[in-house]
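Researcher: Sequence of Alpha-mannosidase follows. Predict its structure.
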Amino acid sequence: MSCSHGHATNSYPELNYSAGAKWIKNLTKDRLGTFNGGHYSDVNLSSVLFTHRVDNSENIKLKVWSAPGLTKPTFEEAMKQKFRSAKKTNHWWKVTVTIPGYWAQYERVQFEFDPGCEAMIYSTDGTPLQGITGGFGGDRRVEYIIPPEARAAGIHEFIIESSCNGMFGVPWNGDTIAPPDMNRFFSLASADLVVPNMDAWALLWDFQTLQELVDTLPGNTPLQNNALTTANEIMNVFHKGDPSAVRQGRKLAEEVFGEGWEAKGADIYNDGPKKSNIWGIGHCHIDTAWLWPYRVTQQKVARSWSTQVDLMERYPEHRFTCSSAQQYKWLEELYPALFDRVHEKVISGQFHPVGGAWVEHDGNMPSGEALVRQFLFGQRYFESRFGKRCETAWLPDSFGLTGALPQLIRGAGLTYFFTQKLSCNVFPHSTFNWVGIDGTQVLCHMTPVDTYTAQATVGDVNKGLTNHKNLESSDTALLVFGNGDGGGGPLAKMLENLRRIRATTNTHRELPPVNMGHSVDEFFEDLEKSTDEGKKLPNWHGELYLEFHRGTYTSHGSIKKGNRHSEILLRDLEHIATLASLYKFHNKDYIYPKAEIDESWEKVLLNQFHDVLPGSAIGMVYDDAEKLYAEVKQDGEALLEEAFGILFPGSVRLTPKTKLKSLGSSAKIVAYNTTPFTRWDVVKIPLYGASAGLKSQVLQASDDSKAGYAIMQSPAGSAGCLHTPSNALHAHLKPVSVYTNGSDHFVLRNGSVQLTISQGRISSLIDVKLDRELIPEGSTGGLVIFQDRPNYWDAWDVEIHHLETAEPLAFTNVSVVSQGPLHASVRAQVKYGQSTIDVTISLDATTATVKDNSRSLFNFDAIVDWHQRHEFLKFELPLNIHNDNATYETQFGYVQRPTHKNTTWDIAKFEVCGHKYADLSEFGYGVAILSESKYGFACQGNVMRISLLRAATAPDAEQDQGEHHFSWAVLPHVGHFLESDVPMAAYLFNSPLRVRCLPSGVSDIVSSLKSPFVVEGARNVFLETIKRGENDSFDAPADFETEGNKSTTTVVLRLYEAFGGHATAHLRIGNHVSVTKAFITNLLEDEEDELNIVRAEDNGGSTLKLTFRAFEVKTVKLVLGALPKTSTKKERRTSWVKVDQTQMFSF
Ligand SMILES: [Zn+2]
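Model: Prediction complete. Tokens:
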């Protein structure tokens, strides 16, 4: 019998007296924290990161010039200044470094500059080379690598501009209630020439990746244990005095990353699994203004992007994406040399413009047309500079997203949408089809990494799958990494980390693989393919409501007003200027002022940035924003005047100061109605010097007899004129009156509606015709104040608990200002705290619109001298109306939100965004609140509120302090909202009638013309915009009737369906606008389908048939030109407009 036990070759020892290798895992884990920095930094890895460091004046010469005050001079200006020798202070630096000859042996020499704030390094010819971020944050980047040629020369000169702001502008200690400290100082911490020990740095990055693996992965995975034992062993072999210990440590790390991983460089991404779940893309969120003003952002852009271009040279896999055409434009204007470098990288496919918009705008408050312009201006810029439009819309940080966006995104040639902000909500999807109010969808990805400033850690990569909400339908995620908000972008260490993570996943399966070298568009294209064109994905219908930051609909009233009023002014300007550029009765030199209009639009679009329009920036930003709005107003009104000078030659604007006498005895008052609705208005006319004829049209004199009231009737999109008493006081007019008991009881009334103020509160609102009381018994309406003390984020948040502190305010000093019969009003006052609120409540004899059965509206004009802090002023109206949903206008449509608190999702909507109206209706009746500059509304149960003023103190300590002028209106209506005239009334309430005086003896051709563009057959289709085509030439006056003229003249009209239903409309075009072709275009005005033009037999113009689905936005392009000769061919034209007496309109 043979037996093997006598021949054992096994080396497993027979005896064992040792303690064994069992560890206490947590202690080992905790030990890793002692390897870098901290208490042992003089002996651990930190102690060997630099081989040499000098900071003496022989090697480093610094000269400085400090810019005065808060100015940000350009490179050229700064270079003209006198620099003085300095050691350590602020601002512009001329640096000369002398590199010791024996340093030639080292891999790298760096200049380390830490000014404690942000800085930028320039070459001596002014090319920005890279940004510097001083201080001790995770975004610290203080090294500038000395170029090889300079090292060879032994001497290197460059320029540094240090800016007195940290990455977060005026430094803010992170307390979201306290205002930022405007007087913080920075000091220069280092300006050293150093030789980094690159092996030691590489070991540091190895070790950090291992540590992240240990911290991120579950403890029972082999990889996690392997990473921990490897990291522990690296610590064991490390010895400060032994250079080979670093190399040994690096070799050990290959246990996890794989042998020879580093030599593969960027090719590491070509190894391992074919499919990557996580797509890495470098990014840098630069808030266009926030805790810093626009002028600082311009520097941030240059700093951040130059850094990225520099990184691309060393990391070929690095791809970087940035949005906002405005930021590219600033770079182009202010840093042309750097723009050229960026341009090169865009063309080579490493630098990716994204978003297609002018800025990353607020997602709630810009009007529909303004959103169109965000994309139009953005896409046109990107196409003009880089030959390519964007495919992915990009709004990671906007505070809620309107359901109008999907349609506008697709209409602007984009298919995909990236956001992140909704991660603040409990939102059920990561990747989904986002379906807008009209049914248009975009492919939406909301990164499960839950941030657009990921640090590219193992945890970030892992979260891409572990936090994905719908892995059942899609298993890829976008990793958007790089420091942001204040700019910066990816750091070298992030790119190093990702290479190590990828190396690890090439041989391990515990982590999802990450790829690099792709674009965001490619990520979405892959998503589209892998989800069967989105069919496998869940859908989300309607708005992406953010359950935070609800105070931003109200914060900074002046900005909200500037936005709305600028949008309306530019709308009117484009409308009138378009007509002026086509109608040439007297002046053939008028050219549509395209460049000037664009310039104004750019200012409005810029201020719609997602921390400016919401009111969540520092005070300095609002000084700039208000200045921009003032310029838009001044320039816009001047251009409007010029255009009116063509339509109504010699005319002047009617103001209370207009001297009618100087205009002659037969001076005439006319108006232009730019809205698509026939309107009648009560207009106030100064009576001094007015002719007898004019006076005879006045139906009511003001109390001081200096002015009178008359009725102006204006057809849709056309000129209006005054109506004489004989035919004006027809059946539609409802004379108004005021009743009072003299002190605390006032009744404003006409034949349509009646409002009672009793003991300072609105105690009754009656539909006179139906004899229906709309305020529930025992309730009152009026102003109300709330304590507004959010838990966090002062200017951003209003919290639900503010509603528990309602304090109704009573009007005092109520007096009658105007008695009727055309216009009646009472003035009332509230004194509260240090503030005074004056409100004039008025009622006209006209109804809100010309719709049958329309009711009159009560107008509230407020002047508020506001000095409260952390209080919220609203106007409220309890209503005898019941519905589970209220309706709020949104861009190109409306959105309905619950009035109850069934679920947390419903409760969250205690304060919501609305545009020109909010409405509560039930079968048969409803009441709307109209707004001309406020965006915050609420309807809780049967109580409707409009939010008027807040007073946060951070980040702007003086938010909303001072005087405010604003208006709102209350409109009762017969029938449910869907049957009502609320959208039309709100439109009119927002659009001032442009009233003008024509001097005696001037022919009024325009008033004799029919409206050039009228929508017929569908009251739910609104004509929003009339403008000239983007691609027309504006070098010379439009000439579309000279045969053979090559220049194109087009008119672009934008229409939308406003009530949420299908429609077939006819767009009637007046015969004085000779249309040769008509197209449906996208929002970028690319022609899509040609429309059939139906021409009227009797030269009565032409008609286009347009069909709409609910909330559809349609853009129509009309090409103007000489029509084929018809019966009129013998007629010789003296002007481009023929006056046809049959077109004279009459009422
Ligand atoms: Zn932001």
